[in-house]
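Q&A log
Question type: sequence-to-structure
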Amino acid sequence: MKKYMIEREIPGVGGMDGGQLKGAAATSNAALSKLAPRVQWQQSYVTGEKTFCVYLAEDEDAIRQHAELSGFPATRITEITGVIDPSTAR
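Response status: OK
Response body:
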């Protein structure tokens, strides 16, 4: 499977409380269960008006299907082709 970064424009997402985020995660998980094993959610980073989500998926179409089923937009889908961090310099 390939790794992708999905940028989702969700107005006000950064102001959601724990219960609202829990509900969003449950909605996402329900959509993922319908698409398994074609797509897997690893984690998401929440900012003021967007989330940045890391997914493993067969292809971009699987991510688009998840967006449609969950109701969460996939504003931008970018394949992750590598990772660097401070240890890369060693």
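Response note: The mean pLDDT is 97.
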